[in-house]
Amino acid sequence: MHYREQEVTKAHSKTFEWVFQHSSPEDSEEVEHQFSTWLRGEELGPIYWITGKPGSGKSTFIRFLFDHESTMKRLKVWAKGKPVFTAGFFFWTSGSREQRSQAGLLRSLLHQFLSAYPELTSAAFPSLWTKLKSIDTKERVALELDFSIADLLEAFQAAIDAAMPQMNICLFIDGLDEFEGDHLAIIDFFKNLCLGEKGQSIRICLSSRPWAVFQNAFEYAVPNLRLQDLTYEDMYRYTKDRLRENTPIRRLLKNDAAAGEELIQQAVRKSDGVFLWVRLALNEL
């Protein structure tokens, strides 16, 4: 269920740390992306959109945010003492149907949610829960479950409604452009989760390529960042560290610092914000 997340490359050392290092309103980069402010729940709304060109590192960035202890630290400020539940899903167009569909999204989120809070199972699936209590273990094992999208939507909404008074929820969803269904429908799905008072207790971080359907929905409506505009220093550090692993180039960096510096900067400039380009180019050396 977490195969795609596990396949996403982990960030290079110190990469993306800038997202947590700028917290003062006077800092121009923090004003630009405002992500830490958003995590702390400071009146920026429940949805944050991360966009970027193909290969710019969006999936790696979402995994970094999902896993980083600083994310939870800031979410706890927002929650004001309530528990915070986080869950993630990574759409993947090359994966199985479960990895690119709304059914797969809902099953994954429900699995994460109910694994963490099994006491909410009865709220999510009341009829099934009643039936399971009335049959023995052998019958439970033999029971075949077939949930429709409507069933999963109802269960997920019921679980969230039951949990909301006692906890805050933050979802990290990567790759909306890799969703196989109606993109407007999946946008509406996430927006509807935040309607009314629920918007005070939920945060949803979404990522996608800058397709028109997502730009129209998010660019001027929610806080957002364009990843390739913020990763020059990350790519510079990654390129320099990788080149140091190559013995002849490491010798060049030591003996002719100016030529070495030009080589690094040229590689980063040519990448034009695409981490994947740099990684593939350096692999050829």
Automatic annotation (TrEMBL):
InterPro entries: NPHP3-like_N, P-loop_NTPase. It comes from the Eukaryota. SUPFAM superfamilies: P-loop containing nucleoside triphosphate hydrolases. The keyword DNA-binding does not apply. Pfam families: NPHP3_N (PF24883). Residues 33-209 form the Nephrocystin 3-like N-terminal domain. The keyword Ion transport does not apply. Keywords: Repeat. This is Nephrocystin 3-like N-terminal domain-containing protein. It comes from Hypocrea atroviridis (strain ATCC 20476 / IMI 206040) (Trichoderma atroviride).
